[in-house]
Protein 1
Amino acid sequence: MTTAVLEKPILSLRGLTIVAPGGTTLVENASFDIGAGEIVLLVGPSGSGKSTIINLLSGLPDAKAGGWRVTGTLDCGGRHLDLSRERSDVGGLVFQDNALFDDLTAGENLRIAADHAPATDGELRTLATSLLPDVAADKPVSSCSGGQQQRVAIARTLLANRPILFFDEPNSGLDIRSSRALAGMVRDICKRMGKPAVIVAHHVEDLLPEADRVLLLDTRNRCLRAVEPSLDAIERELLALDPSASRVSDGPATAEPSAAPWEGRLPSASRGHWFSRYFLEYFWVLCASPLMLMYVAIGGMIVGFVEIWFGFNYHSFGGYLKSLLHDETLVGLGLIQVTVAVPLITGILVVARNNAIIAADLGNRVLSSQFRAMANLRIPAMAYLIGSVLLNMVFASVVLMAVSMSTAAWTSLQTWHLLFPGQSSELFRENFFRVFLNGGPHVTMDLVWVLVKTVTSSVVAGLAAIVIGLRKKDSVVAINYAIAESIIAGVSITLFVHAIVGIFQF
Ligand SMILES: Nc1ncnc2c1ncn2[C@@H]1O[C@H](COP(=O)(O)OP(=O)(O)OP(=O)(O)O)[C@@H](O)[C@H]1O
């Protein structure tokens, strides 16, 4: 472990130990100092813990959530933090994927950071906006180029006004010229602000000319140590840690990497396999998840209770004729429950929930370019995803209807027992299901109509959710709108289909 000795460090970290949830120690008792305006490159094998360290120092909750163990102390700006108890907030982090707020304009991304910063002076704002001469403040970030988005992300982090800047692989995916321009920009920022920057990078060549120091995360000794800031030296050190890596830090962090864990793990599979893979994924979420089953079961129970309770207690002839008209009332309530009430309520419940899921699922796939990736990889997205969704909407409508019908009938029976204690369940069954037990062609037709309206409303509502979900999405907010739209469209379609079929039915 090496501790750089600086006259006036901005940040002093002592005894940093990080243990990952699985029990792997990433660093042990590491210490380092960073001085004003310094640029430090943090290098190390893939998976060694570089991002974890800068996330931790930037105060990101997930760096310490879920079983991570961290110890060490940090001194920065006159504050002393015990990292085992306190969260560090000394770092402003530029995320690898920029993590811009895509529902805000470029200007708003900057303003919201400034508005939540401890203090931002005019000079800082000038510096931040000077990075964006070619970006209009009212430009949506989704229409900025990749380079512009990165500069918006850097400017936003500057305005957060934290003592140290952290960059997580800022030059991955940049060409040499852009990568050098980025390094120059970071140098300029550090000089003008007098703040240090720590850059996590795999491709260090273009960043090295601007770096003051290089720190290596040594996976063998689990320490952070200084390395000569030259490409040869860095390459040598990384190869020593991971002899199988052919290029700088592209190999995994394990001491003896091999392809063994992958052996036999990539068997080829037919299209049928992939269709069923997606089909089962949607089957679970749209049809068979315990939450869904519980949801429609409870829906059915409420219908079953309400129908019998109010059907008898608010009979048009009052309590006087309740017993006299008992049998015929039960017949009517049974017919309405099976052919109208349960299909309608269950249809609405299923479509509302599933349309939200479909719009969210497809919307996220659109936003994260998954359909483009599928097209590029010649994966038939329409067959796998859309086909699976529609088939599952049909399944869900029938299966869940059956669940809901059962719980509705059971609850009706229990409610009837409450109202007519001592009567036999047989009496209930004979009358409640009399129309269906007697059989006949009109009964079959009634049940066919139930099936028609159930499946039709589910498929048409599902199609609406698919169309809405597949529309272009620029932001998370667009997905939220799509979810709301698809619920409204789905429920309206269900009401409409049930009303129209009801007219034909009776
Ligand atoms: N949520 C998590 N739960 C368990 N282990 C995790 C979690 N997140 C990361 N890790 C593990 O912690 C280690 C360090 O991850 P980290 O992302 O910090 O590495 P890195 O050096 O930045 O890697 P790379 O250079 O490939 O981005 C890895 O071995 C990773 O598998």
Protein 2
Amino acid sequence: MAQSMYVHIPFCTQICHYCDFNKFFIQNQPVDEYIEALGKEMSLYDLDNKEMKTVFIGGGTPTALDAFQMERLLTSIHDHIRLGKGYEFTIEANPGDLTKDKLAVMKEAGVNRLSLGVQTFNEQLLKKIGRAHNVDDVYRTVSLAREAGFENISIDLIYSLPGQTIDDLKETIDRALEFELPHFSAYSLIIEPKTVFYIMLNKGKLSLPSEDTEASMYEYVMDRMERAGYHQYEISNFGKPGYESKHNLVYWNNEEYYGFGAGAHGYLDGIRYHNHGPLKKYMNAIGNGEKPIIEQINVSMRERMEEEMFLGLRKTDGVSLEGFKRHFGVDMNEVFGEVITNLTQKELLVISEGKIKLTRQGKLIGNEVFQDFLL
Ligand SMILES: C[S@@+](CC[C@H](N)C(=O)[O-])C[C@H]1O[C@@H](n2cnc3c(N)ncnc32)[C@H](O)[C@@H]1O
Ligand SMILES: C[S@@+](CC[C@H](N)C(=O)[O-])C[C@H]1O[C@@H](n2cnc3c(N)ncnc32)[C@H](O)[C@@H]1O
Ligand code: SF4
């Protein structure tokens, strides 16, 4: 039974050049109606004050809501669920968006983790990738958040940005580490179809670091974080002990969760579902008293096994052989023996202490390794 929920806020004050998440420029959007619709959507699930271990409000930009809207959203969530012992309640925030009022509302509602989309500490690069904030905003936001009583703060960074050098990245990481926060995520830039960057790249107007440079950047990030005392618990995530994101671990552990909001996905009773992305479609469905689901996939046993592997291998901890047997009643080797032998010989995977894990080399080409597990 799912004890995690994701809530999607699809509004942003500015659209970044690399982003293909479900989001809309906030101006003239029906934000209040959307918040109301979210409440109605939750009512369509028999939550009945269900206890949640993790809640994650992401986007888009949740902090694009004003303090009143934020309060209404959080009240509506609390009308449907209660927070379990040791819960984690994350809100994603854009630097520059957070005010004392918003932070107070969030704190009051039990939010206990903030994930800040910083991306880089290089002012020119921030402009180049289309971010709305500047470097000073980051410092102001972290101070404000700390003053409001938040200590579990994470920073998202993106590397391999257009024109970025290893030295740029080093400076960004140094400045990020100076905050002594408990958690960091570092993603390598993905050029997604239909984004500004995609169009620029196709026109030959975007120059990106080479694949070798990208790999060196990733290795640098891993080593630097390790040296600073952060445990790399997932391909792109680093935390001080005890600060690994509980919500994101639900995904990688192949566990179930509710998904609410336009474009959100959820996983309940063996079914993965995906909500309508366009606001009109989402709101219309809710208006008709229907769940706003566009697609449902009944995950077969075979697919569940594949997911267990390619989600679980994202974790440094890997996938437990015994856990696999417990979940599926068969040996991992019976299903994936050939793939595992092959990848182990190539030194992309190792088996140790009853777990199968990516090697350092495997982490560098993770997506290729995961492909092999699709039977
Ligand atoms: C979808 S955003 C939402 C949070 C917030 N609006 C923000 O911009 O930080 C979550 C994170 O995904 C990462 N991200 C988004 N698009 C990406 C891309 N094309 N390549 C790599 N990372 C990306 C960024 O680090 C971003 O902070
Ligand atoms: C890229 S991750 C960044 C997490 C962050 N680094 C942290 O440590 O909390 C978060 C993004 O993934 C997307 N996301 C996460 N869970 C989702 C779900 N269930 N449905 C739809 N999108 C989801 C959202 O766009 C969200 O902004
Ligand atoms: S990266 Fe964040 S702020 Fe930028 S467009 Fe995407 S969701 Fe909005």
